[in-house]
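A.,

Following up on our hallway conversation. C-alpha cells first:
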C-alpha cells in the first residue's frame, strides 16, 4: 500500500490513475480538495477497492498519524502543494501554510511512523517529495540547463515556498535518517489540468471565443513535460532511486510561451475550427507581464536517464495533440471546474492588465 497526498489534483490524479492501471497495490489518497483538487478527476475509480480516498489536510497532524497507523504504507508520494505563481503573488499565505508548514507536519508524522517500523519495513520505506524546477530561479538564454547541483534561487512566493519544503525534506534525511527522494520537474501539461495554467487556459478561452492572454512579449521559455511521462518517472525513482538523492525530470522540450500558444491554436484550427473559418490566433492578446516573471527554465534530466534508465515517451508534438484532443472530448469536465470562484479569479488576475 502507498499513500499519495494531493492525489485529486492535476499531477496527483494522473499518478493515481496510472498507478492503478498498472498495479493492484492499494492507494490511500489524501487531498483537502481546494479549488484545484477535484474528485471528478478520479471518477473512473469510484467503487474500486484499491483506491481509498480521504478528504483532509497534510497539516492535520492527528489525521496523518491515524492514517499512517491504520494503513501502514510502504511509501508516501507527496504531491500536495499550492502551485500557481500568479495566485502566490496575490495571496502568498496559503503557499506558506501548505507548502512549508504542511510539509513540515507531514514529515513529522512520517518520521514518527517510520521510526516505529520493524527492520525490513523500515529499510524498504520511502518518502518521495515532488517539487519543481522553479526553485532554481531563472536562466539566461545561453546558460546550461538546471542540474541537480544548481543553486536554489527562487523568485516568487510559490517557488520560495517549494524551495523551503525541499530543504526540509533534505534536512529530515540528513538529521534523522528519513529515507527520502526528491524530484524537481519542469512544466507539466496533459489531461485534468486546471484551466488557470497556460495550455488549458488557451484551449478553454479559444473555444469560448475569449482573448488568449499572453504575458509580456511571450518569449518566456519553459521545458514542457507530458504529465504521464512525469508519472512514469516518479514510479521509476520510487522503484530504484538512491535514498537522499534529487532527480530532475524534464521533457527535453524548451519552447517560448508564444510558440506554445501558436501550436495550440493550430491544433484547434485543425480539430475544432472556428465557425467563421478564421484562425484562433486572431484571439491572441498581449497583456502586461506578471511581476518578477522568470525568463527561462530548462531541465537537464540526464542523471535520471543515466542512473535509472528513464526518458520521456512523448515528444511535445505527440503530447500536445493528445492534450488538445482530451479537452475537446471532455468539455463537460471543463465546464464543471469553471465555478464562480474560478471566474472571479480569472477576472482578478487578468482584468487589470492592459493590452
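Then the amino acids I'd put at each of the 355 positions:
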Amino acid at each position: 500500500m502507498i499513500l499519495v497526498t494531493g492525489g485529486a489534483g492535476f499531477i496527483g490524479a494522473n499518478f493515481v490513475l496510472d498507478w492503478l492501471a498498472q498495479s493492484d497495490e492499494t492507494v490511500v489518497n489524501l487531498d483537502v480538495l481546494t479549488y484545484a483538487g477535484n474528485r471528478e478527476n478520479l471518477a473512473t475509480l469510484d467503487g474500486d477497492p484499491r483506491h481509498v480516498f480521504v478528504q483532509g489536510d497534510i497539516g492535520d497532524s492527528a489525521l496523518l498519524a491515524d492514517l499512517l497507523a491504520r494503513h501502514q504504507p510502504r511509501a508516501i508520494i507527496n504531491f500536495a502543494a499550492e502551485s500557481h505563481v500568479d495566485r502566490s503573488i496575490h495571496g502568498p499565505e496559503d503557499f506558506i501554510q501548505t507548502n512549508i508548514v504542511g510539509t513540515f507536519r507531514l514529515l513529522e508524522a512520517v518520521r514518527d511512523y517510520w521510526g516505529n517500523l520493524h527492520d525490513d519495513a523500515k529499510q524498504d520505506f520511502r518518502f518521495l517529495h515532488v517539487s519543481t524546477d522553479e526553485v532554481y530561479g531563472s536562466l539566461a538564454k545561453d546558460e546550461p540547463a538546471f542540474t541537480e547541483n544548481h543553486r536554489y534561487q527562487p523568485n516568487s512566493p510559490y517557488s520560495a515556498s517549494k524551495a523551503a519544503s525541499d530543504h526540509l525534506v533534505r534536512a529530515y534525511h540528513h538529521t534523522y535518517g528519513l529515507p527520502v527522494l526528491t524530484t524537481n520537474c519542469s512544466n507539466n501539461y496533459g489531461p485534468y489540468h486546471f484551466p488557470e495554467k497556460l495550455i488549458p487556459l488557451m484551449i478553454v478561452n479559444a473555444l469560448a471565443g475569449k482573448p488568449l492572454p499572453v504575458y509580456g512579449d511571450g518569449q518566456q521559455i519553459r521545458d514542457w513535460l507530458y504529465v504521464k511521462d512525469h508519472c512514469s518517472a516518479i514510479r521509476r525513482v520510487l522503484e530504484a532511486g538512491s535514498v537522499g538523492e534529487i532527480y530532475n525530470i524534464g521533457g527535453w522540450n524548451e519552447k517560448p510561451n508564444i510558440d506554445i500558444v501558436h501550436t495550440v491554436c493550430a491544433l484547434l484550427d485543425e480539430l475544432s475550427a472556428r465557425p467563421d473559418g478564421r484562425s484562433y490566433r486572431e484571439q491572441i492578446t498581449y497583456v502586461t507581464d506578471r511581476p518578477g516573471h522568470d525568463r527561462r527554465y530548462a531541465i537537464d534530466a540526464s542523471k535520471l536517464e543515466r542512473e535509472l534508465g528513464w526518458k520521456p515517451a512523448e515528444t511535445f508534438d505527440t503530447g500536445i495533440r493528445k492534450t488538445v484532443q482530451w479537452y475537446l472530448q471532455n468539455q463537460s469536465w471543463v465546464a464543471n471546474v469553471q465555478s464562480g470562484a474560478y471566474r472571479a479569479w480569472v477576472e482578478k488576475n487578468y482584468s487589470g492588465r492592459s493590452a
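The domain at 2-190+224-252+296-315 is CATH 3.40.50.720 (Rossmann fold). Curious whether your intuition agrees with the design.

B.
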